[in-house]
Amino acid sequence: MSQAIDASRIPELSDIAEFALREAREAGATQAEADVSLQQGLNVTVRLGEVETVEYQRDRALGITVYFSQAKGSASSADLRPEAVREMVRKACSIARHTARDEFAGLADETDMARDIPDLSLYHPWDISPEQAIEIARACEASGLAVDRRVNNSEGATVSTHRGVRVYGNSHGFLAGYPSTSHSVSCALLAQEGADMQRDYWYSNARSPSGLEALEYIGRRAGERAVARLGARQLSTRKAPVLFVAELARGLFGHMVSAVQGSSQYRKSSFLLDAAGTQVLPDHVQIQERPHLIGAIASAPFDGEGVATRDRDLVREGVLQGYILGSYSARKLGLRTTGNSGGIHNLHVTSTRGAQGFDELLAAMGTGLVVTELMGQGVNGVTGDYSRGATGFWVEDGQFRFPVHEVTIAGNLRQMYQGVRAIGSDLDTRGAVLTGSVLLDEVTIAGN
Questions:
Q1: Is the CB of residue 154 less than 8 Å from the CB of residue 144?
Q2: CATH 3.30.2290.10 domain range(s) in the chain
Q3: Which class is 7-228 in CATH?
């Protein structure tokens, strides 16, 4: 392996970005931006104790975008030598000269650039060899296979570790970068009883290896979940409360994120079109964006355009406070960027009623369906109509009764959001939306 990929590479990448910007300026570009990065990763998968894959990845990339009076041209390359950078800038400029002007194109406003770059503790390398990763994966899978004699097959256990460093600069004079890491361990197992075969999984990811759940727990959880699904039944069609476990509740709110993104708004392809200032959730629900959480998966000191990231309320007392915007979509809507070019940063969903434990949510539901897995892509982003295959557990009197499969959860997201009754304390921190399990009032469950 050559040079390490860490903060020590920032000066080198900064020089490359500055060189590209200087070449763009000398070529006549009125504005320009450059994004340069180095990435390194290791992925190992073991199935039934045998090594299936060992993948080592090491990438470098430079992207340059130039503007000639709002005509835009872009080019990218993995070759960071000066002559290659010079040629790439030339091609980007050539594209821009043959592109129609777009009045909304251009860099984010200079006043929005990040001035202070906080250290968010995003870089914690995991120095493991492929051999060590293989042993971790084997131990994880073995702990799951040992759960029950009915756990008799595996789709494998995977260990991944990635590190990278990125520098972004533009012709406003902004130039900054930071390193980051991400690690994960996952396991997927199959349980069988007679002709009934069920599959389930579990995983953990974190910026730091010390933040990962114990590998034995990950495998055991996957095995226990697979066994629990044996004997699954269908339900008759009915309406009942539905409890989305935390990892699925994250996706439920993800549909809202898509609907309030600037691109969905200006394209008029959102079921929450022009919804800013209106009630989209019950008044006890709050959603705050917190980009500077230390060590969180979706934390970032600045967005993809160099705009400072800041805490803000996306939903306050159930009322949508604004949209999720980069500079282009903000200009299209006559608004200001929210520092979300490239995505959201730690949306934290809470309730003023307080977070309830999972058993408390079951008791509050009484009788209904706990959803543990969703299938299909039956979500219409324009109308909000929702229809997805589901598996889970039927609950009566706050107690699990039997596993359920081959049913469909159907409704409209506007009504489903208004039906959020409670939010759990079992916070899932594995993505950009941080939420506990979510209990919804009556939803249609389509079965046999």
A1: yes
A2: 7-228
A3: alpha beta
